[in-house]
Amino acid sequence: MEKIYFKLFDILEIGDDFPTLIMGVINLSPESFYKGSIYENPEHIKINVKSIVKNGAKMIDLGARSTAPWSKKITTKEELKRLIPAMETVCKIISKDIIISLDTQYREVAEPIYDLSLKYKRKMIINDVSCLKTDNKLQNFIIEKDLPVILMASKKIPGDLCTIEEIINQFNKTIAELKLKGYDCKKIILDPGIGRWIEKKNYVYDLKIIGNLDKLRVFGLPILVALSRKSFIASVLGKYKDTPEKRYNGTLSATAISIYNGAHIVRTHDVNNQLIEISKIAQEIKRNH
């Protein structure tokens, strides 16, 4: 099978022969499961963005809506109210070689944030956990603007697929639909959707997805994992059910295995030297096995 290679905005080279890309999370949603990741004021955002970039992140994932199924729902108006000042703060801090990933499922949110990215001359992609199922207009927006996109495996609602076979089948359908509409599908990054998004998806499904990540290579596209502090870690360890702040060791272990199994991008709440070193070792073992 050919090596995977992807160039994002002529800025970032992603693939088998390049260092694992670290994406740092800036979370603006107080509804989120991990309170340590929430940044609610500009000064806090400023400090953490500087730290994330200094520690090695090449992408900032900016989101204002918790996508956990049990979370309180908010309007797109509220989502934008949280995002606009944060986006302006981030754009003023980062250099042009750092890419912003906007975590949203709605065109109504994406469009004004994209306009801000143009105003500040920063590069932005879309990260949609619904695989473009929530809002058809967002799909049209991505095609119109020719924006790169992270697609998380979903059939009807975010994360409702349990097996790698289901995930591959749905990605095939989504990619075929985008191609039919004239989208350049070489601009897609794939996220298998690790996490308990639906009731029937217990932790064993997540373990099997991580163990079979290499099967996603069939698409020839970069693979992203977002597993930071998620509940499967607590389930495996039999503790930390209500304390995601104690799931970091499990996060590091799952991250290393995911990279060995083919992940090119790691979306994480914690960008630090420990994560960078673990990622590098896992990648080098894979490269030399």
What does this structure look like?
This protein has 9 helices and 10 strands. α1 crosses α2, α3 (107-119) packs parallel to α4 (136-145) and α6 (203-211) packs across α7. β1 and β2 form a beta hairpin. The model has no long low-confidence stretch (mean pLDDT 93). The strands form 2 sheets. The protein has an 8-stranded parallel sheet with strand order 8-7-6-5-4-3-10-9, with helices on one face. Strands 1-2 form a two-stranded antiparallel ribbon. It starts with a strand and ends with a helix. It has a single domain, classed as Dihydropteroate synthase-like (TIM Barrel, Alpha-Beta Barrel). Helices cover 40% and strands 15% of the residues. It has helices at 42-54, 76-93, 107-119, 136-145, 164-180, 203-211, 231-237, 248-260, 273-287; strands at residues 5-8, 12-15, 21-27, 59-63, 99-103, 124-128, 149-152, 188-191, 224-225, 265-268.
